[in-house]
Request: fold
Amino acid sequence: SSADHFFYALNPDGSLQWRTATDFYSDSSSAAIAPDGTIHFGTVNGVVYALNPDGTVRWTSNLGSSAYVAAPAVAADGTVYIKQDEGVTRAFSSAGVEVWNYTIAGEGSYAGPAIGPDGTVYIPANDGAIHALTPAGSLVWKFQPQTASGADDVSGIYTSPSLDGDGNLYA
Reply:
């Protein structure tokens, strides 16, 4: 959403299709589109929005007080994974019910989660690591980069991970 507190949809020719009022603006993140066309995004006031393709509000959630500054990821079943600046990643059902949350200490990076072909959720984190979670929110593994001297690099991962066709993760 923009600084004027609206989320916009434009036609291919650049004309306005619709606009929807939001509680505040989004900062540095894009929206994610679910398989059914639902549009998901968060705002700096800590509200998650799910809009129908026509711009009407399907649901909102206001859990926690921290900003959503990373783009969400949406699984094939419509589950929405979105990370707050305070380090909490939340999973919402397609109906907007929080299914689980996973907290990583520290202030958040602007990098959003990615979803693997098996449903694994990869979270770039404030602690410098990448956390791999099951679709149910349990930790599978954590990769902690090392500095040249062999110490844990806790400076943070600030890029959203990408996966190739073989399941290799890049961040």
